[in-house]
Each structure stands twice: as structure tokens, then as C-alpha cells.
Amino acid sequence: MHSLQLLLVASQALSCGAHMFLAYPPALRASTNPFSKGNTDPDITSPLKGSSDYPCKGSLSLLGTSQASSVAEWTAGESYNMTIQGGAPHGGGSCQASISTDQGKTFTVIHSFIGDCPGPEQQSSSFSFRLPGDTPASKDAIFGWTWFNKIGNREMYMNCAVVSISAGSGSEKVAFGDRPAPFVANINGCRTVDSEDVLIPNPGPDVDSMNTEAVAPTGDCEKAASPPFVGGPSSSSGSDSSDSSETSRAPVATSAISEPSETSDGDSGPVVPSSAATSELGGSATEGVEPTSAAGLPPSQTSSGDWTPGNDWPAGFSNARHAAAMNLVLLLAGVFAVFLV
């Protein structure tokens, strides 16, 4: 029983540390939010259960209470960042940052991150974005973070934080009201592809694309046309990359053996060995002296009984044996000469 209790405690600890959540700006009911007052969500790192807790994982019920006080003061047209923390980044994925100025009834995308969001192997990663200059002012605007993980079950995550937004100046190429709503998948008829960064169909004008090979979702997904990109990867850069990959290839290695050189008559023939030919023993032959075989005989005579007197020896000739016979003949001749005298 004691072992079972320890196992349950360990599994609960792992579940609390799993997945990811919006650490900054501090999400509603997050442990990093100073206004949570103990009313934290133990499952804040878990994915959405479905359309029932979309948007904001059901935390919008806190609006109007002290627990939903603003945690950051922003000005339209300025740049800010969001920080994602947790124990399981699931290989990264794609994220979106959005703003609601009507108590969460609608959300407007202000930036999309395609691939590597959050960092594939990081327990904490930050992403910068620019709040559009024409974002409506609001004392209790809602900042939303949505995430579609790359590896694991097909899920959707969302946390929200309350921020104050002051009016900015200047117009945008794409008006705030013309920006898209956040992409929604895996809790409806649209589904992201397993082990792939999702290519969000309508990411809006401000996009950081870390994966140019992201894959579009399948099923009944958003078909609306995307506003023009600003700073996204262009098709020309892709072609340049392709060209550079071709030119950067290493040259093919050539053979270490030279091709036959061309002769004076224009015909190609084999390379002729030099006059310093080597013998069967591997030694260099001296000019004018024919190399000998291992048997001490000229190579040209090793298979023939003929020989040239005064130059080489016939096959099978042993100078030691023949010298002994010659000595015996001379000895007998000397003895015979003595008897004659």
C-alpha cells in the first residue's frame, strides 16, 4: 500500500510538471500569477479538453474579480514578449499570440510562430512580438497563447492573461479588425499532422517561420485567405537556397590512376613502363644487366634448356656439381699422366 501511495504521488508530480503553460505574462490561475491567491489550476499545463473549455481553458469566469487583475501594462505599437515554461515541449510545434478586447468573446491574432514554439528541447523559451499600433485601448484586455504540439497526441493548448493596453499612434498595413481569429484544431473537425509542425492556414500578417516545411492540417479546417505576409520567407529565398545547395556540393574525386597519355600519332595507348624495370624479386635492374630469377637464372631461360655460353647457364645447371666433376676428371688425368711417366 505504501508503494502504491508513493507511485500515485510521483505520477501526480509528473503530471503537474508535464506539458507547457504561459508563464509570462502570468496566466490566469497560474502559480506565477501574484493575484491567483491560492486558486491555482493544477492542470494548467494540460491541453484543452475540447470546445467546452475554449477559450482560455475555462478561466474567463474569473473576469471581474481581483484574481483577474492586470499583470502587465502595454502600449500599442511597442514590442513585448511571452515566456512558455514546462517539462514537456513535445518537440516544439506552432504557436499564436492573440488579443481580445471584448471580454474573450473574440480574439485577434497579433503574431504567429510556425515551428520551434516552444523550443523543442527547452523547458523555458521566450518569443517576442509587436503589439499592432492600432490595437484598441483596454484596461482589461486578454492576451491569449495557443499551441499545437509537434510530437505526441493531437492536442491544443491555451492559456490567457489579463493586460492593460494604452492607445498607440500610427496605422498598420493590415488593420487590427482585419486580422484573423486564432487557428483552432484538434478539438473540432480540423486535425494537425502527427510529428509535424503545423502550417497555420491563416497566420496573419506577422509571422516567424522557423520551419519552411511545416505541414497543413487535415479535415474541416479554416479556408479563409490569409492577409499579405510581412517579413515571411519568400519563394525567391527558397530557390536561392536550392541553388546554393547545388553549388556547395563537394567536387567529385578523380581517380588516382592517370589516363593513358596520347601518342604522337594521335592514338591513345597504355603507359609504357620506364627502363628501370623491376625483377620478380622487386629489385631495380641495372642498365645492361638482365635481372635474374629466384633460382639464380635469367628469367628468359627458366623454362628452356638452351643457354648462351659465356653469359648465362642452361636450365638445371648447378655450377657446384659440375665443378666437382671437373675436379675429378683433372685428378684422374693427373694420375694417368704419372703412370705414363
Radius of gyration over C-alpha positions, nearest whole angstrom:
45 Å
- Taking pLDDT < 50 over at least 5 consecutive residues as the criterion, the unreliable ranges are 1-17, 224-326
Please state the second-level CATH architecture of the domain at 17-225.
Answer: Distorted Sandwich
Distance between the termini: 132 Å
Along the chain, the helix and strand elements come as: HEEEEEEEEEEEHH
CATH class of the domain at 17-225: Mainly Beta
Structural class: alpha+beta
Number of strands: 11
Q: Average pLDDT value?
A: 73
Strand order of the largest sheet: 2-8-7-4-5-10
Number of helices: 3
Helix content: 10-25%
Structure description:
The chain is built from three helices and eleven strands; from the N terminus they run αβββββββββββαα. The protein is elongated and about 155 Å long. The chain has a domain at 17-225: Coagulation Factor XIII, Chain A, domain 1 (Distorted Sandwich). It has helices at 2-17, 235-247, 319-340; strands at 20-24, 73-75, 79-86, 93-100, 108-114, 124-130, 138-149, 157-166, 190-191, 207-209, 218-219. The strands form three sheets. Strands 2-8-7-4-5-10 form a six-stranded mixed beta sheet, with no helix packed on it. The chain has a three-stranded antiparallel beta sheet with strand order 1-3-6, with no helix packed on it. β7 (138-149) and β8 (157-166) form a beta hairpin. With 341 residues, the protein is α+β, with helices and mostly antiparallel strands. Keywords: Membrane, Signal, Transmembrane, Transmembrane helix. Residues 196-311 are annotated as: Disordered.
